[in-house]
């Protein structure tokens, strides 16, 4: 039995060579699911216009249907064929794409993206990923790909092909190995569909950068508002199996410490130099590494909410939330 599982894992992960990318595009065209690297985290991709493929993606991840998917495209032109980015969106797209920024905008009439993929919303979340493998997959396929993170819903996002294999090998058609993800955190999500640009999720592009380009973002949504505007923002998410204790200044019996900066007693350190970009790139794989059977609690040093620190703290709060506890 074990041997079987191992051989499936070995068969599913392949280096992202040009030939493998062509094979991946063929699989997606035929309704398959392919995990591939992006600069943020590994995505699990399916043809964005194929209802049956999108359904199998939700099923494999165990993702609730009310949580819409991000549509990945290869260029600004491909994005504007699907949504009207208007003035603010065009500025943000020009300055940040390819890159870790997702824009939510009104879908154009006649847009062929699966309604299942977007939870029947009148808006669409779209981005151009900044990774050569993701871009060549999109160019080879020639149509948009929906791609949530390639992990079981609610758990820590994968930043290596091995992480994907840990939870999804055997359930997907192919895992393209393109090494570790550079940014290591999901994209920033900005909603441009209303009168005020709103931050729906902090991520790989800093709020400071966005506000420099289009002015102040509307304040974070209230819990009720965020249910309707972005259904996926609410729940405990990105969570390891062990509980987390945040803003820890000491290490208690049974705990391991995930440090930040020069703190004594850390089992792993997000960044000795207290560099938030380095910490973001390390966050998910270090949480996975500490999520061990012999550990009772993962204590985490305080991380300043500056630059990418805002997104790191958002993920840590969601990871630390109690099961079934909403995080508004
Ligand atoms: P994930 O795929 O888990 O990285 O999450 C994508 C996030 O984008 C989810 O939390 C969704 O709630 C959000 N999202 C996707 N599409 C839309 C949309 N049309 N409107 C608002 N939020 C969206
Ligand atoms: Mg995810």
Structural write-up:
This protein is of the alpha/beta class and about 325 residues long. The chain has two domains: about 5-230, DHBP synthase (Alpha-Beta Complex), CATH 3.90.870.10; about 245-320, no CATH class. It is about 35% helix and about 15% strand. The protein has helices at about 1-10, 20-30, 50-60, 75-80, 85-95, 130-140, 160-170, 205-215, 225-230, 275-290, 310-320, and strands spanning about 15, 35, 45, 70, 100-105, 125, 145, 175, 190, 200, 245, 255-260, 270, 295-300. The strands form two sheets. A ten-stranded mixed sheet has the order 1-8-2-3-7-4-6-5-9-10, sandwiched between helices. A four-stranded parallel sheet has the order 11-14-12-13. A hairpin with a 6-residue loop joins strand 2 (about 35) and strand 3 (about 45). Helix 2 packs across helix 6. The radius of gyration is 19 Å and the shape is globular. The chain starts with a helix and ends in an 8-residue tail after the last helix. The relative contact order is 0.15. The protein binds adenosine monophosphate and magnesium ion.
